[in-house]
Amino acid sequence: MASHIVGYPRMGPKRELKFALESFWDKKSSAEDLQKVAAGLRSSIWKQMADAGIKYIPSNTFSYYDQVLDTTAMLGAVPPRYGWNGGEIGFDTYFSMARGNASVPAMEMTKWFDTNYHFIVPELGPDVRFSYASHKAVDEYKEAKALGVNTVPVLVGPVSYLLLSKSAKGVEKTFSLLSLLPKILPIYKEVVSELKAAGASWIQFDEPTLVLDLDAHQLQAFTAAYADLESTLSGLNVLIETYFADLTSGAYKTLIELKGVTAYGLDLVRGTKTSDLIKTNFPKGKFLFAGVVDGRNIWANDLASSLGTLQALEAIVGKDNLVVSTSCSLLHTAVDLVNETKLDDEIKSWLAFAAQKVVEVNALAKALAGQKDEAFFTSNATAQASRKSSPRVTNEAVQKAAAALKGSDHRRATNVSARLDAQQKKLNLPILPTTTIGSFPQTLELRRVRREFKANKISEDDYVKAIKEEIKKVVDLQEELDIDVLVHGEPERNDMVEYFGEQLSGFAFTVNGWVQSYGSRCVKPPIIYGDVSRPKPMTVFWSSTAQSMTSRPMKGMLTGPVTILNWSFVRNDQPRFETCYQIALAIKDEVEDLEKAGINVIQIDEAALREGLPLRKSEHAFYLKWAVHSFRITNCGVKDTTQIHTHMCYSNFNDIIHSIIDMDADVITIENSRSDEKLLSVFREGVKYGAGIGPGVYDIHSPRIPSTVEIADRINKMLAVLETNIVWVNPDCGLKTRKYAEVKPALNNMVSAAKLLRTQLASAK
After folding, report:
1. Which of 99, 196, 295, 608 has a 20 to 30 Å separation from 545 between CA atoms?
2. Any idea of the CA torsion for 243, 244, 248, 250, to the nearest 10 degrees?
3. What is the per-residue pLDDT for 678?
């Protein structure tokens, strides 16, 4: 029985690629140095899978930024502003598209389906001249082959690539991106032909958009694309991989009727109804790559249950045609549990990271083939039973409190307009008030202080003194820049979710459980294993300390319950909304303690609310109901004069704008500039928004410093569709990934732009 891995984490067990990328970007190392680190990681990954007995090992899943950008490079679809003149795309052009440069902004970045991973959105139009401009897929296949590993090259499928793209600026709204299919397929044919010539026997096309709600025209594009590719694919085994949800019956029918396709990869973890489609109709002689090992969470697989599922499928598709696989790429999990030295043995026994999931896949394949490792299965069953019965998982008081929430919608008593009036009397802010989103640059010295405190190398007194000094520096800088509503810069926090999880019960933490978010940015998601509560205040001391340093309003900074949920590895033994309500109650306690401590502006970030939206429209209403309700729970008890902010970033918010309004926050700051201000289009189309709103005026994920004129132009675009008295001026997101040399001039220009427009507005009266 064969085994397969959809994809594997790229960063390395200790973030080796992250540090190599940042060293290269900072011009401290060469392209050759970066390529050497990358080659070492690829070699290690391929060898690990080969040693574990995996038959179908992927290649070309390694990326220096993301796989969609790699495909843009392969197709030569470089926007003209980057000055690329043809030939093989190098690092300069590649990273300029991803990060921008001194003269031009980066391409838009958005979430990869409903994950916390991001991709660079292709910008396409009728005039794009596609050309085969990156041979990465073929080069990596040859690289693996030279190491003695025959891999399955992976390409983002042509239809998904176009469906994930956007029309470039200036392109007619009526333009159909799918009309570009005949222009990109010749390049796919070139790539496939080179892979065949190099000796590839299998090829994997990732077509995850098949799980979305697609119309007949979109489904027809898949049929047309693979019919066109059929002759080129002849002689290859072709796997079409889907993941993250069920397929509709129409999408499933389209998939199994594609020309030239040998195998279908299906997510049987999140695609809970997909098995019914397989039972009803599976084409004879085709391969099923059954995704039974969860690629998006870190819980050990219930091997006995998965084996039962596989045996039922084997009876349908045939013994020789069933391949055991992961539900999706393991990119979304941590790398290796072996590196976790501080997790206690009980919790560790409940977990499986990417390296362990590879072993699980192979163990299931061997068991199906009659070579069951009884000791491994017995150990797994013991761990499953331990998790179900452990007293540390359940807190009856928390469950009772969460259950009691269902009788109310938890709205503040006064409408937002009246609240804003009361808040303005207290805060006395100018029009177009300026603020930032929360974090300030995390310097090497600051990271050293936190690291040494965690390692008990410095005392708590020394740590508190150092953090207070950093807060004072950030407060003084903001006052010098004349920012209106300040933040303390979050110097005590390495990560906005990890920081809160460390202080809440029901959470566990890793040392090296890093997961790539985008580029070199990695996060270390907490593990929610049990019922959640707040033993004591989490942020009150630091917020109060910061407020004591200034007479200006100081925001209390919290992460909202939906974002904590969506950016954690969540327990899978109860519905997600139940866990979210528990977190909401914990954050509610913190909000009320901040208010009692004299903090008059409290920001509850819900950066990931849109990210968690189910991929199927039929499931949207239920998710949005409990997600928005969870946010309202956190602040339903505060006074009218306490201003509640929230923040959202790097997703498409236009389709949930009414749910955002229903959150009933006093002010929302929201990413806008990197996505070409498409957020503003909903207001142009007539949506009325009465609360405060700060669409971001510059992209913080690029080192580029915007000018005062550029920022003023963005603000003017906002004023064209929003009332002057509700507009705030702020960056797209937090500043922790930037350097002070970038932050100071950018914020100075931002404040200057706000003042310029205040003057213009005053003189126009």
Report:
1. 608
2. -30
3. 65
